[in-house]
Amino acid sequence: MVGSELRFATDEGAVLVHQPHRQDAQRSRVHCTVSGAAFDLWRLSAAPPGGGRTAGLVSLEALEAVQREADFAQRAGRHPNIVRCHGVLVQNEGAVHSKLLLCEPCVFDLATHTASSSSLPSREVSDLGQELAFGLGHLHNLGILYGGFDASGIFRGHDGLWKLRDFCRAALLPVAASEWRARSHARPQEAPPEARGSTDDALKPEADVWMLGSFLSSLVSGLPQGTGALAIAPQQLVDAAVARLCLLLQWLMAEAPEERPCAGEAAALLGALTFTPPQEILAEMPLREQRRVCSMAVAAARQRAVDLAVAQPSDIADIAELPLERLRVLGEEINQILDNCGMDVAFRPDNAPELEAQADQAVPTPCAGFRQKPADIADASTNASGMSDELSESKLASPSKSAPKKADSTDLLGLT
């Protein structure tokens, strides 16, 4: 009934709020009738396919999706970068099944914040990414995979922090899933397609880290999310802050899941990005990622050189074949792009083959400052593809005959 009171059982006792007049609103601002404290009332509904309130039946999948999202919102608990859910109430009207979530009040969502601009300043993206990474780390510790980022599901709280709220695509991590089923006998969550790797064993926290990097890259480039790679105009790398952020996002989106930093490490790297030289970022990366990022920097410099050559015709015949030393003298912007990406005068071209040789040997040693995964923990001893470390070492030590031929590192970087 409109105007009636709703009673929520919370950790801090019963909370009574007036039911909002618009019962079809997804989010409503309500106040406790006793203390006057403000809350956001979220409505998760499962309706018949036709949308009617009296005709048709609600599908079992829709009911499970509502139940699952409410369960994850409650299980997330209290964290500065998670919208806290104080309590849940079931409300059915006709054929529509709803769950009401009493949550902490928020100011606005990220979609509203970015409505006037397709991209954000690099410093703001770094701060946003750090706060979201902190939230991811908390969820991973609870055995929850967030499953995907959307600007409409990220909210700015009254404390000024960005918070994760939308759990419609969340899933249980493999170890936590068995514990959850043992306690509640609940049906396991289906993993979101983009969180999967080549197999179901890739349902690991590293999937969230990749999706965080993809989401942040869309905010930097202004392009729609989901392109699968960091697409940024070469001239943007002239800004040192943008270049450092792009280096780090390339690392978060590493092709091999085991080479990505965990959520906590990503938060620390994003927080120190302003004061971290690009050479130090490269030094922390695994060797294969170093080569990939260096190739990206050289490609961006060559593309910028082509753009400048078109605008100001020169006698250079083929920019694509110029060595790095000659590429630098074509323009100050090209020098800035290379320097901002960590390829300054201290960069030694003859180190490139050495990096490739080291990367093709045994498993790379962990970066300085990163913790070593304990071998006695089953979940930590497998990489994101479900392959044990021992099996990885054996395959690396004896590569198969069908392994692709190694590309010449000097030609790849344009350092001949």
From TrEMBL:
<keyword id="KW-0808">Transferase</keyword>
<dbReference type="InterPro" id="IPR011009">
    <property type="entry name" value="Kinase-like_dom_sf"/>
</dbReference>
<dbReference type="GO" id="GO:0004672">
    <property type="term" value="F:protein kinase activity"/>
</dbReference>
<dbReference type="GO" id="GO:0005524">
    <property type="term" value="F:ATP binding"/>
</dbReference>
<feature type="domain" description="Protein kinase">
    <location>
        <begin position="1"/>
        <end position="276"/>
    </location>
</feature>
<dbReference type="Pfam" id="PF00069">
    <property type="entry name" value="Pkinase"/>
</dbReference>
<keyword id="KW-0418">Kinase</keyword>
<feature type="region of interest" description="Disordered">
    <location>
        <begin position="366"/>
        <end position="416"/>
    </location>
</feature>
<protein>
    <submittedName>
        <fullName>Serine/threonine-protein kinase</fullName>
    </submittedName>
</protein>
<dbReference type="InterPro" id="IPR000719">
    <property type="entry name" value="Prot_kinase_dom"/>
</dbReference>
